[in-house]
């Protein structure tokens, strides 16, 4: 029970309860209000930096806005510049494409001309190749004909004679050799070189047996090779012996003869693989020569012939030298006479000059009427005029 003045209030009275509840609520509201005011003060103090930051943020936002406006202007300028650059680039590209197109057109035209020219040259070369092919075909036929010639003994001998004749005619004077010359024993030499004694005329034979060499070259087995080598030795030995017996005659020919080989290959084969045959030729005084060595030998013979002809003309040369010496001696005598004449003429000219000088002096004195100076220098031949005369 609560006593307030004259009034008493019980705790179970609803009015009292309501009043108490209201008072409690009012007190709670006051407390909360005080707490809120204090919290608001603390919040105000705490929000001051935040407000400053917000202010600064606002300024930054403003600056950012200004920058955004400037950026927008710059972007517009860049966009315009980019558009202009793109336009210029397009123009340049168009010009460049036009130039490239023109250049490509010129290059294509030039390439077309060069291609046409190359095709023309190729056509000419093909024509030349066709002609060369025809020549090769013809040459093949000639080679086959040459093989046919060499396969026959008589035609092969004629071929060797023709080749030997060509070489000899180029190396020696026409009067220094004879073709198909007949010797005293009735044998006929393919060529006889008229060398002086010593060594005397020398014979050349051009009929070499090529069958043995062909067999040696065509041998396929060792047995065939050995048989061909035996055949070649036998054939060459017989040929060397025949040349020595036919073309080396005492008192008529030189003490030796030449065996002409129409092939350098045969000559190399004999010297490389059959040196004993070459030595046997030396012993028999039969010298084996090829076209090349035959030319060298004939050039040596040409020098011998030239020396012999010089010796034959030695007497005539001596006579001519004697006459030349006489002419020189006579010329010397005449030069001496002419020199004496010149000396005499020089003396006469000197005397004439002296006389002329004297005559000139006298003429000048007469011109000056210098008679007094004339008397002392008078000549005995001068006649004095009498005074008063």
UniProtKB/TrEMBL annotation:
One Pfam family of this chain: RmuC
Keyword DNA-binding: no
Keyword line: Coiled coil, DNA recombination, Membrane, Transmembrane, Transmembrane helix
GO biological-process terms attached to the record: DNA recombination
Domain of life: Bacteria
Record field: transmembrane: 15-37
Family: Belongs to the RmuC family.
Its biological purpose: Involved in DNA recombination.
Protein name: DNA recombination protein RmuC homolog
Native source species: Roseovarius pacificus
């Amino acid at each position: 029970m609560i006593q307030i003045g004259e009034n008493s209030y019980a705790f179970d009275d609803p009015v009292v309860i309501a009043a108490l509840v209201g008072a409690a609520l009012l007190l709670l509201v006051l407390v909360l209000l005080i707490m809120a005011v204090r919290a608001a003060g603390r919040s105000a103090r705490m929000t001051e930096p935040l407000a400053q930051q917000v202010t600064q943020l606002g300024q930054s936002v403003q600056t950012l806005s200004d920058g955004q406006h400037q950026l927008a202007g710059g972007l517009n300028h860049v966009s315009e510049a980019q558009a202009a650059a793109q336009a210029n680039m397009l123009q340049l590209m168009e010009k460049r494409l036009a130039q490239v197109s023109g250049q490509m057109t010129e290059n294509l035209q030039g390439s077309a001309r060069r291609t046409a020219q190359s095709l023309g040259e190729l056509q000419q070369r093909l024509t030349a190749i066709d002609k060369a092919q025809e020549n090769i075909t013809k040459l093949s036929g000639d080679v086959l004909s040459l093989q046919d010639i060499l396969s026959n003994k008589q035609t092969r001998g004629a071929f060797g004679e023709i080749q030997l004749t060509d070489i000899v005619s180029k190396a020696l004077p026409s009067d220094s050799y004879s073709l198909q010359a007949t010797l005293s024993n009735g044998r006929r030499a393919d060529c006889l070189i008229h060398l002086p004694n010593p060594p005397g005329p020398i014979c050349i034979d051009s009929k070499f047996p090529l069958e043995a060499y062909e067999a040696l070259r065509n041998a396929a087995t060792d047995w065939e090779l050995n048989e061909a080598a035996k055949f070649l030795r036998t054939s060459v030995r017989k040929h060397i012996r025949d040349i020595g017996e036919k073309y080396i005659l005492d008192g008529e020919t030189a003490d030796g003869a030449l065996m002409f080989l129409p092939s350098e290959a045969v000559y190399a084969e004999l010297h490389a693989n059959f040196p004993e045959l070459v030595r046997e030729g030396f012993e028999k005084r039969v010298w084996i020569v090829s076209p090349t060595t035959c030319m060298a030998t004939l050039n040596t013979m040409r020098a011998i012939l030239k020396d012999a002809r010089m010796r034959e003309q030695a007497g005539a040369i001596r006579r001519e030298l004697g006459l030349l010496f006489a002419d020189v001696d006579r010329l010397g005598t005449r030069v001496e006479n002419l020199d004496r004449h010149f000396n005499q003429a020089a003396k006469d000219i000197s005397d004439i000059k002296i006389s002329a000088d004297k005559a000139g002096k006298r003429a000048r004195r007469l011109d000056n009427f210098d008679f007094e100076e004339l008397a002392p220098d008078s000549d005995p031949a001068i006649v004095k005029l009498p005074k008063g005369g």
